[in-house]
């Protein structure tokens, strides 16, 4: 499945260290960076471009690194900036606000009228999650999480990833995407709601029977 | 016992009428992660939690996702899935090499 090489590609002895390093980067970190870029940009060609730009920018930076993990996080840092540049450009060119999505996503889970209007319908409201912390060590849980996140509309997923996964402050995201704070809040609310529901359906709701 | 039950119902209805609805509670749960709510609003939410297990769960679960989402950033590249194609790899390597010779 994964194309990650089992061992680092041997660098030809004739080449200088300088020349072999960037090519080794592509073999060692290319897949990791590509998966990251693909999940954020959702377009294989754009993701490839972003990875290439990352390596070229790294080349210009021309720093040497001591540890492999330092090298990796350095490259991921550059890629993150490239992805943000992409969002900035998109925010200038089109409207990033996506308020139509899931307008009524959870409305079927609330009591429609009467005395307890807008209260959760008990049978379909949030259910108890069984020891959620234990899920964090499961790779299958994170795959489910990724699949749920991929099901969100692109712009909704973008704001969610910037805010929750990258931990960027609201104001900074609003400036980057050129949207109002209120619109950001609404989009985040819908993303969280949809993601919670998806995880409950596809993971937490299935745990009791599976284990 | 009967008296207790009727007092309980009265309490639930009173709280329900004096706190946000569950739909509003879900919005406030998310909103609180972006900007602190007023003391009064936080108090109302607490009160609502007393009578509503569903909003309590929603609040806990949204906060759970908020706390642990950053781990997704680290997991992402490690999960099985499509990586760079061999074509793309050699194309990128060519570009990198080209830029290296330009830089030298």
Topology:
The complex is a heterodimer of chains A (211) and B (104).
Chain A: H1 17-41, H2 44-61, H3 68-93, H4 132-135, H5 139-151, H6 154-165, H7 170-177, H8 181-202, H9 207-210
Helix pairs in contact in A: 1-2, 1-3, 2-3, 5-8, 6-8
Chain B: H1 2-18, H2 22-31, H3 39-51, H4 53-68, H5 70-75, H6 86-103
Low-confidence stretches of chain B: none
Overall shape of chain A: it is: globular
- Largest Cβ-defined interface: A-B, 69 and 50 residues
**Radius of gyration of chain A (Å):** 21 Å
Q: SSE order of chain A in H/E notation?
A: HHHHHHHHH
Shape of chain B: rod-shaped
First-to-last CA distance of chain A: 26 Å
Q: Can you walk through the features of this model?
A:
- The complex is a heterodimer of chains A (211) and B (104).
- Chain A has 211 residues and is mainly α.
- Chain A has nine helices and no strands.
- The longest helix of chain A has 26 residues, at 68-93.
- Residues 1-19 of chain A have low confidence and may be disordered.
- Chain B starts with a helix and ends with a helix.
- At the A-B interface, helix 1, helix 2, helix 5 and helix 8 of A face helix 2, helix 4, helix 5 and helix 6 of B.
Brief write-up:
The complex is a heterodimer of chains A (211) and B (104). Chain A has 211 residues and is an all-alpha fold. Chain A is built from 9 helices and no strands.
Kindly list the characteristics that best describe this protein.
heterodimer; A: 211 residues; mainly alpha; 0% strand; globular; disordered N terminus; B: 104 residues; 6 helices
């Amino acid at each position: 499945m994964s194309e990650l090489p089992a061992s680092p590609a041997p660098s030809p002895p004739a080449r200088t260290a300088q020349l072999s390093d960037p090519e080794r980067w592509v073999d060692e970190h290319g897949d990791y960076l590509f998966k990251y870029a693909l999940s954020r940009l959702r377009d294989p060609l754009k993701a490839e471009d972003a990875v290439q730009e990352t390596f070229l920018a790294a080349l210009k930076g021309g720093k040497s690194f001591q540890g492999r993990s330092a090298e990796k996080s350095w490259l991921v840092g550059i890629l993150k900036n490239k992805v943000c540049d992409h969002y900035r450009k998109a925010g200038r060119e089109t409207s990033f606000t996506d308020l139509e999505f899931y307008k009524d996503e959870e409305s079927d889970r609330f009591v429609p009228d009467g005395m307890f209007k807008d209260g959760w319908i008990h049978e379909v409201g949030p259910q108890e999650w069984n020891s959620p912390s234990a899920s964090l060590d499961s790779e299958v849980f994170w795959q489910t999480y990724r699949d749920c996140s991929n099901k969100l509309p692109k712009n909704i997923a973008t704001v969610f990833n910037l805010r929750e996964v990258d931990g960027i402050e609201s104001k900074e995201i609003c400036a980057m995407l050129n949207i109002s704070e209120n619109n950001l809040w609404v989009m985040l609310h819908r993303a969280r709601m949809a993601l919670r529901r998806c995880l409950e359906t596809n993971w937490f709701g299935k745990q009791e029977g599976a284990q | 016992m009967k008296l207790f039950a009727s007092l309980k119902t009265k309490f639930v209805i009173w709280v329900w009428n004096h706190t946000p609805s569950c739909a509003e509670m879900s919005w406030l749960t998310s909103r609180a992660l972006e900007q602190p709510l007023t003391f009064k609003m936080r108090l109302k939410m607490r009160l609502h939690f007393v009578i509503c297990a569903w909003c309590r769960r929603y609040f806990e679960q949204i906060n759970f996702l908020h706390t642990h989402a950053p781990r997704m950033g680290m997991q992402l590249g490690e999960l099985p899935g499509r990586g760079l194609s061999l074509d793309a790899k050699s194309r990128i390597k060519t570009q990198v090499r080209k830029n290296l010779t330009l830089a030298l």
